[in-house]
């Protein structure tokens, strides 16, 4: 049986299961801690942005931890807004802002924290990506693995191999949807979607006309091939089944 612990976060008493991540305990109790590289879509967290830092005091000793991967194993006192945390978080955001000056979310969070940036920091041009790796994680978790980190230092970026259209990409948009900074661009019209330099044909439900995805992503999700794609979306299928059951019930 799991053990229950009582901790305080910003003076508020909170109960949690032993081993639960501190960020999750705070969130459940309505206490805001900023996160960037943390996505509830994945069980394993990369913990590379450090914006979720908090101060934890256990048995008289205080340390700074990344709350998104800090398991609560004993009673403790947590401060999410101490002077030291505010100062360190402001530096982290100033660095992120210099790395990704075009990201609206980073700019807004930086302003919210009162950070204005440091003059001596070199700011990258036209950049929105903070290299959190969530997009690569999303792509890998689908078994597609079309994108990865390439190059080093300031040239480091996320791309397909050699920046060429990838035969593994299915155009599902998982990478763009999980990206916290809006760094992955794509375009769509009535019939096609273009992402990572590749254009895909869209598959629409023949009943309601809704976009089901690209032909490749629909085939991938049903582990099928492009020649035998489902033509009706899940909602219409459910409605059809419910209608058929109702008809059978009425005729019984
Ligand atoms: S493109 Fe977005 S999700 Fe991918 S590493 Fe950059 S910021 Fe993270
Ligand atoms: S959100 Fe915790 S390290 Fe990024």
Give the class from helix and strand content and strand pairing: alpha+beta
Helical residues, percent: 25-40%
Query: Whole-number average pLDDT?
Result: 92
Q: Proportion of β residues?
A: 15-25%
Detail the poorly predicted runs.
none
Report how far the terminal alpha carbons are from each other.
49 Å
Query: How many strands in all?
Result: 11
Radius of gyration: 23 Å
Oligomer: single chain
Number of helical segments?
7
CATH architecture of the largest domain: Roll
Helix and strand topology:
Elements: E1 4-9, E2 12-17, H1 22-28, E3 53-58, E4 61-66, E5 77-79, H2 83-99, H3 104-112, H4 134-141, E6 148-150, E7 157-159, H5 174-178, E8 186-188, E9 192-195, E10 198-204, E11 211-214, H6 215-221, H7 234-251
Parallel strand pairs: 1-5
Antiparallel strand pairs: 1-2, 3-4, 3-5, 6-7, 8-9, 9-10, 10-11
Helix pairs in contact: 2-3
The protein binds iron/sulfur cluster and FE2/S2 (inorganic) cluster.
Question: Could you explain how this protein is built, in words?
Answer:
The radius of gyration is 23 Å and the shape is globular. Helix 2 packs antiparallel against helix 3. It folds into two domains: 109 residues, Ubiquitin-like (UB roll) (Roll); 106 residues, no CATH class. The model has no long low-confidence stretch (mean pLDDT 92). The strands form three sheets. Strands 2-1-5-3-4 form a five-stranded mixed beta sheet, with helices on one face. A four-stranded antiparallel beta sheet has the order 8-9-10-11. Strands 6-7 form a two-stranded antiparallel ribbon. Strand 8 and strand 9 form a beta hairpin. The relative contact order is 0.09. 28% of the residues lie in helices and 20% in strands. It is built from seven helices and eleven strands. The protein is α+β, with helices and mostly antiparallel strands. It binds iron/sulfur cluster and FE2/S2 (inorganic) cluster. FE2/S2 (inorganic) cluster binds next to loops.
